[in-house]
Amino acid sequence: MIEKACAFIRERISDFTPEFCLVLGSGCGTVAEQIDACAEIPYRDIPGFHPSTAPGHSGRLIFGRLAGRRVVCMQGRLHHYEGYSMAEIVFPIRVLRHLGAQFLILTNASGGINVRWQPGDIMAVTDHINFMGDNPLIGPNRSEEGVRFPDMTHAYDRELLTAADSAANALGIELRHGVYLATSGPSFETPAEICAFRTLGADAVGMSTVPEVIQAAHCGFRTLVFSLITNMAAGVLDRPITAEEVGEIGTASAGKLGRLIEKTIEIVR
User: Can you state the percent helix, strand and coil of the chain, rounding each to 5?
Assistant: First the structure.
């Protein structure tokens, strides 16, 4: 199926080989508007891909240039809470690696656990805690892609983090660093869970990204993750959390995130 998906895509992009793969999460989809696109392919048309049902996830691949670099953008991702298996969630990551992309930049919307932060902040993820209860590498190992037991110590590439810091400094953006904790969703977390996650060392919580990072480590991507704090997590503020709040902050901060991604791509060599 990987070969079928790659062949289908190559027929539509000719000899275009992406350097960077961007995955745009909730509230971050408008970043794709900055790309000088040469091809757009809906997920539903690609063998092995599945449609994204999450709000604000357009569900298409966009090929083109950003900051003069060749990129492929996933405008929307798949989530475990949509009913997709881990294998289905990470299938696009495997395909895009086979197409030749070397760098993976993922974005997501998250709830702020660190009480010193506020909605609208951007966090560069330095590590993660997997509370999803699953792993995309369970099952027979695909030895042609990676080893049976991949090391996760440097899953978040330090050189890419340095480039992101340089980009943030150049743009006058305060870039946080922290640990992202992933749950399966779709319910938001309870105040007691957030208290426990803070004790474990998490700075933000969300419902995505970790499966893709694990798969990326397995198949050799160099990975960077930007987490947009769209709300404070349960119990931090005395008010309920809504999906509308997540979307509003994501839309308001998309321009800042887009500039940061573009500048980072420009710096990376």
Answer: 35, 25, 40
How does DSSP assign 34-99, residue by residue?
A: GSEEEEEEEGGGSTT-----STT---EEEEEEETTEEEEEEES---GGGT--HHHHHHHHHHHHHT
Q: Tokens for 104, please give them.
A: 């993976």
68: which residues sit within 8 A by CB, 6+ positions away?
266
| Tokens coding 157 | 């590439």
What does the alpha-carbon distance between residue 181 and residue 195 come to, in Å, rounded to a whole number?
Answer: 13
Provide the pairing of β-strand 36-42 with 222-232: unpaired
Identity of residue 194:
I
State whether residue 225 is helix, strand or coil: strand
Q: For residues 78 and 215, is the Cβ–Cβ distance under 8 A? A: no
Instruction: List all residues 6 or more positions away from 216 whose beta carbon is below 8 Å from its beta carbon.
Output: 93, 97, 104, 155, 223
* Contact present, 42 and 59 (Cβ < 8 Å): yes
Instruction: Give the residues across from 204 on adjacent strands.
Output: 112, 180
Q: Are 136 and 146 in contact (CB under 8 A)?
A: no
- Please identify every stretch of the chain with a pLDDT value under 70, giving residue numbers as ranges: 26-29, 55-57
For residue range 133-162, what is the model confidence (pLDDT) as tens digits?
A: 999 999 999 999 999 999 999 999 999 999
Q: Would strands 103-112 and 122-130 be described as parallel, antiparallel, or unpaired?
A: unpaired
